[in-house]
Amino acid sequence: MLLTITTTHRPATDLGFLLHKHPDAVRAVDLSFGRALVFFPEAAQDRATAALLLEVDPIGLVRRRRDDAGGFALAGYVNDRPYVASSFLSVALGKVFGTAMSGRSADRQELADTPIPLEARLPVLPCGGGEPFLRRLFEPLGYRVATSPIPLDERFPAWGDSRYLSVTLRTTARLQDLLAHLYVLLPVLDDDKHYWVDDAEIEKLLRRGGSWLAGHPEREPITARYLRHDRRLTRQALTRLLDEDQADPDLDEERRDRQEAEVEDRISLRDQRLGAVVAALRAANARRILDLGCGGGTLLRRLLAERDLEEIVGVDVSHHALEAAARRLRLDALPERQRARIRLVHGSVTYRDRRLAGFDAAAVVEVVEHLEPSRLPAFERTLFAEARPGTVVLTTPNVEYNVRFESLPAGALRHRDHRFEWTRAEFEAWATAVADRHGYAVRFLPVGPQDEQVGAPTQMAVFSR
């Protein structure tokens, strides 16, 4: 069983520092089911590859089994476990690359925190659900997936292909993210685990997948397969994922809306902001519009009143927010023609999603500041490189204006869930760079009353492709 990880980041030999393995040495680790070997088949300045070779002892596994019920007599000896990427490989990743998976590097911490070009190759990967399911797992995480089928028997082509694929995954990401994705998704693809699954598996899943799994479009099947389809464990895990994905679990969507509005209510900033966004969308002559991070549906309600719009799609990572939006829009009571114009979709602004492609415009209103800064490249890729709407209208707070809010303590951000707030110069630098990278022009508009010293409370960028 083999996994190789390659980088072309220069100097590529720094991969050894990230993995805590010396490129000139072979590291052997004994495991309960066999032995893992780590070595570098290539280690140059422009390209380095680390290989994890796992030798599974099938006879030893059979001898350690206490439950021999089920299956045929030789099933324990004649199987694919020594040759395919499965939960055995996940366990080996945790044992051999545990420090790298945690994101720690005593010698190259800055590099460990930096996305770098990475390629993972798995020569024999079981794919329960086939290549389409494989792509649905990895492509939303930003991977470019290349596969080739493995025939059942090359001597008998008529037998067709097996359920195994040779797979190459390419991405630009932190090494710890690649390892975490493999750790969780390999047993999901195999749809089996070689050990007993109990409540401790929920903790493993949340530890390795908590930062990305909650917003993944295939969250439910991933969780169910990882937990061997145990309904009780799956329910618990999904509940905790949803709870932990809410940035402020003590407040429901409407209360969070009120909290931010209390700061901005003095100048009716929310109404001015929504009016500016709708005006920009009108000016773009957009007919099919995405509201990314639609929350409780405040903007969607205004868009629904625009009779020229043909399709309106609200997207949010929170089921609770979508339920609030459905109530606010009174979807159940809308006339059939109105109801056909609007949809609510569960999804994330940081994961690739084919459903977001092909729209005239996208509105991203007071969303970006809720993302961790490390997720901004994923957001940029999802929206500007993959969805590529003709127009993007994006608003975010101007942190310089915060000193004018009397109710806001000095140095505090406008909302307790904001991960950052940009100055005008910071926002313009980020937006200009994004526009240049993806073939957009961008212009900037102030929203709200302008102050000579600190500008307007909201800053808006309108990207045009």
Structure description:
The strands form two sheets. This protein has a seven-stranded antiparallel β-sheet. Strands 10-9-8-11-12-14-13 form a seven-stranded mixed β-sheet, sandwiched between helices. By secondary structure, the chain is α/β, with parallel strands linked by helices. The chain has two domains: 194 residues, Hen1, N-terminal domain (c-terminal autoproteolytic domain of nucleoporin nup98, 2-Layer Sandwich); 212 residues, Rossmann fold. It is globular and about 75 Å long. It has 17 helices and 14 strands. Strand 3 and strand 4 form a beta hairpin. Helix 3 runs antiparallel to helix 7, helix 7 packs across helix 9 and helix 9 packs across helix 10. Helices cover 35% and strands 22% of the residues.
Summary, kept brief:
This protein has helices spanning 15-19, 58-64, 87-96, 98-102, 109-112, 130-138, 175-190, 200-209, 219-226, 231-245, 253-264, 269-283, 298-304, 319-329, 336-339, 376-387, 424-438; strands spanning 2-7, 27-31, 34-43, 48-56, 116-126, 144-151, 161-173, 288-292, 311-316, 342-346, 361-365, 391-397, 441-447, 458-464. With 465 residues, it is an alpha/beta fold.
Task: Furnish the topology, listing elements before pairings.
Elements: E1 2-7, H1 15-19, E2 27-31, E3 34-43, E4 48-56, H2 58-64, H3 87-96, H4 98-102, H5 109-112, E5 116-126, H6 130-138, E6 144-151, E7 161-173, H7 175-190, H8 200-209, H9 219-226, H10 231-245, H11 253-264, H12 269-283, E8 288-292, H13 298-304, E9 311-316, H14 319-329, H15 336-339, E10 342-346, E11 361-365, H16 376-387, E12 391-397, H17 424-438, E13 441-447, E14 458-464
Parallel strand pairs: 8-9, 8-11, 9-10, 11-12
Antiparallel strand pairs: 1-4, 1-5, 2-3, 3-4, 5-7, 6-7, 12-14, 13-14
